Amino acid sequence: MNYPWPEIGTPLVEIVTPMPVIDEDRLAANIERAQAYCHRHGKAFRPHIKTHKIPAIARQQLKAGAVGINCQKVSEAEVFADAGFDDILITYNILGAAKLKRLKALNERVARLAVVADSEAVVRGLAAAFDGAKPLAVLVECDTGGKRCGVQTPEAASELAQKTAAAPGLRFAGILTYPAIGGAAQVEAFITRAMELLAAKGIDCPIRSNGGSPDLFSAHLVPSATEHRAGTYVYNDRSMVRAGHCTADDLAMHILATVVSRPAPDRAVLDAGSKALTSDLLGFSDYGMVDGFDGARIVSLSEEHAVVDLKDCRSAFPEVGQMVRIVPNHTCVVSNLFDRMVFHRDGIVTRVEPIAARGTVW
Amino acid sequence: MNYPWPEIGTPLVEIVTPMPVIDEDRLAANIERAQAYCHRHGKAFRPHIKTHKIPAIARQQLKAGAVGINCQKVSEAEVFADAGFDDILITYNILGAAKLKRLKALNERVARLAVVADSEAVVRGLAAAFDGAKPLAVLVECDTGGKRCGVQTPEAASELAQKTAAAPGLRFAGILTYPAIGGAAQVEAFITRAMELLAAKGIDCPIRSNGGSPDLFSAHLVPSATEHRAGTYVYNDRSMVRAGHCTADDLAMHILATVVSRPAPDRAVLDAGSKALTSDLLGFSDYGMVDGFDGARIVSLSEEHAVVDLKDCRSAFPEVGQMVRIVPNHTCVVSNLFDRMVFHRDGIVTRVEPIAARGTVW
Which residues belong to any copy of the D-serine dehydratase-like domain (chains A, B) (predicted)? Predict the structure, then answer.
């Protein structure tokens, strides 16, 4: 079976739909903008590669000045280690013999590898697996309001850091958080207090890693952070425009789709369903935005169909066989649905990259 | 990079998470139950392979008595044609030169191929692409309340059937619908009226194809339907239990996950996020059900984390490092996230099958 990836030089209008496509110039501008901001404010920038899962894009990010990359799972990191990346932070609690064994192998071949931990159980597992030949760098993950993983208080952070530092095969490398949107003050307060407690114990805290694309351009409001991690900024999506992180001109990803039916005057059906867009709502009441057709709303998704409600659409919606562009609610999850990503400039395909880490959830 | 697919004979407790797994006995029972029901009620049964996307499972379905298979897109059908399937219905409006060319190639090699159409634009495209050497079978898709694709009235169905029948390269093969849940009476009324109109024009309507898993066991309430199509029934999911289609004992798919954090007494984090479960809510207010822990609710998903709210959980939830089983809200979309599917019986892996049609959205 022959997947319909386009040749370089193909006009976008000839692409077989549904297909996510990335605007090269907007991609490059997003990469440069984030890096310039972090440079201006004295923060190291560490892009999260989950949004693209493509080594070539991560290389663009490093070339712009990123200090290294952020992966979410061991298997995702392995793909990037295979591609030669030598500074990888895995922001996940790694548990179980199989994953620890793979992590040990990674630590042998990745010059600068680090992981996170938010509990004694995780630290114990890491400590048992690492024997000290090349200590594993561990950051204590702190819950500064995101209410996902993380120790709950600066005191707990200090205690876990001490346990980490006491393990011969581990190296306490600092603290990390994935904050709530708009939570800069909480992050700063947590980091500051944790550092006080650690200093009182004579423990150095060289890395204070903050994260998130929504508040990327507010990272300077957390002066104590040394680095910022962000993934979504590289392509952007509807949720990033809503968060005030970017404008519509910074949207690099669109999903090209074809109108396959106009069953009624106020209804259109597109060939991009949840298997091309995902059902991620991210707080929106519809499943994506059809570019250029204000008031058209993708009100429901089947796996291979998008049903568009046109009753409030102010322009004449395209007819059967015509192409539209959809802005996804959430860009990162689209990358994980496809094996390759198409890039374009001036309406022409420039390259097609393997999404090398697609499906790496372990 | 070496994906952690388990060997045959591996105990489930050793599987690297997150991992969807299929109970062989429940799978076989689901296949048999649907086939027996259809046989009892004189309906041909045509499974929709989108739920598993695995040729070996489709072969099990054919062996049980299915008349052929249902695919949703041309590229999905190509994978199954490659695997030797000779009776394929593609329930999609096929448009554009590239897809029509691939459809023509399929028609040459698939003994019994059929597609649907719900507009003159689609029929015109099909008619222009097919030259009559081997006519393409076309079913007119009817909207009987599902409000997705389909002609809106029996009169419109008759008109489109006439246009189809008039094209030398096409063969009008009947009508088809994907109904609203609980819409049997509407389906029967539409089919009956459409057949009257067609008979009055001397047009035979041999196939009347109904569909959907929720109402699979009410298919006898549509006496005029000759066949029933269903996908989800093969694995089942939380939405099928809610619809009364099956019980919890018929749930063949679970996603194995590990508790990676217990940050607070009323919170747990699992390693199965939207990239293992999808964000499909299907009307539920939470993202999946943790088997055996009533009151535990997956209240939010990140891409690689599930946050579980334990405040109403009546049992002691597992600790960091322990495994849980998640019943997905929607099984079909999980298959599309992974490259392989693990099967088991009595807690032991029996086989690992390539999800051959993963990602085939064109």
Answer: 252-345
